[in-house]
């Protein structure tokens, strides 16, 4: 038995919650994963996992073993990374999860430069606004908007994204243009956004000087994905707040009209984050540093 390989497989099963998911993340046949865990249990003469048809549960002995080997495996990765980095550029598979609008409008168009700099990194990009469980889903890091409150994550702020309030010319012909945020409560329709994690609606917010206001207008549609939110806005379904960088091309083309420009919505912070328990490998460090460069033009909280 390759004990280090068996330890890595056991750790991944604990993190993934099932043998099937662990096998997918490790890109190994499920029977091989099962066999290595069984060999490890036989070697240790203790049951590490309780199996059911749907999920595995860690025994008390397995939990204690996992906690200790996690530190050992991280130390091994540190040693290997130090040796490897002295001889070669960062390499290997890197799984990154990112919101849809940030991916499609900012990150993906700049990936050729990343691959030119780091040709040996295979980047797997999970795109969507759904929150992910980084360890359980085998994700190395995430790029997300909003305040990250998870204490298990190390977060690095990379940008502040300003918002715009917009509507289509056709919508404004039918409903008129609001002069103040309060006008959105009188005969206007709102394209709302709701959180994929909590299901809570995120109402438009406005600031002007010391004034702060939040508008819970009449929503005709609510979506939980930023690109679809913009599509609904462009369809003329109502007034909406969207990222300024997404709206600006449509403002310039005339497809959208900016509203309430003297009431600036508070910007949203964007961070790159990874688990505090995850070894900051050369490939992860390279991506994080590159992401900081990519989002540097968006570091200001003001509109561009």
Largest sheet: 5 strands, mixed
| The CATH class of the largest domain | Alpha Beta
Report mean pLDDT, rounded to a whole number.
86
What structural class is derived from the secondary structure elements? Answer: alpha/beta
Question: Can you describe this structure?
Answer:
- Belongs to the LysR transcriptional regulatory family.
- Residues 1-59 form the HTH lysR-type domain.
- Pfam families: HTH_1, LysR_substrate.
- Keywords: DNA-binding, Transcription, Transcription regulation.
- It comes from Variovorax humicola.
- With 304 residues, this protein is of the alpha/beta class.
- It has three domains: 3-86, Arc Repressor Mutant, subunit A (Orthogonal Bundle); 90-158 and 269-298, D-Maltodextrin-Binding Protein, domain 2 (3-Layer(aba) Sandwich), CATH 3.40.190.10; 163-259, Periplasmic binding protein-like II (D-Maltodextrin-Binding Protein, domain 2), CATH 3.40.190.10.
- Helices cover 39% and strands 24% of the residues.
- α1 crosses α3 (30-44) and α1 crosses α4.
- The relative contact order is 0.15.
């Amino acid at each position: 038995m390759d004990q280090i390989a068996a330890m890595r497989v056991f750790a991944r099963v604990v993190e993934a919650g099932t043998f099937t998911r662990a096998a997918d993340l490790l890109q190994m046949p499920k029977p091989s994963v099962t066999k290595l865990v069984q060999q490890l249990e036989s070697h240790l003469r203790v049951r590490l996992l309780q199996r059911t048809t749907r999920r595995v549960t860690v025994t008390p002995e397995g939990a204690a073993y996992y906690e200790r080997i996690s530190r050992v495996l991280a130390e091994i990765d540190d040693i290997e990374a130090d040796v490897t980095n002295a001889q070669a550029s960062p390499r290997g598979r890197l799984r990154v999860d990112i919101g849809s609008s940030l991916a499609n409008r900012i990150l993906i168009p700049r990936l050729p430069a990343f691959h030119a700099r780091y040709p040996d990194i295979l980047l797997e990009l999970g795109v969507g606004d759904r929150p992910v469980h980084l360890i359980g889903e085998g994700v190395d890091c995430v790029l997300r908007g909003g305040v990250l409150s998870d204490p298990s994550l190390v977060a690095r702020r990379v940008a502040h994204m300003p918002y715009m309030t917009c509507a289509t010319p056709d919508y404004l012909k039918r409903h008129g243009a609001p002069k103040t945020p309060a006008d959105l409560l009188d005969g206007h329709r709102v394209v709302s956004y709701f959180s994929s994690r909590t299901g809570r609606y995120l109402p438009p917010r406005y600031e002007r000087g010391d004034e702060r206001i939040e508008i819970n207008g009449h929503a005709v549609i609510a979506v939980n994905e930023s690109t679809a939110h913009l599509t609904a806005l462009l369809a003329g379904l109502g007034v909406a707040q969207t990222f300024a960088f997404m709206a600006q091309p449509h403002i310039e083309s005339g497809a959208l009209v900016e509203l309430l420009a003297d009431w600036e919505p508070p910007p949203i912070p964007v961070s790159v984050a990874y688990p505090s328990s995850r070894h900051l490998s050369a490939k992860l460090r390279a991506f994080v540093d590159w992401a900081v460069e990519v989002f540097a033009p968006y570091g200001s909280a003001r509109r561009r």
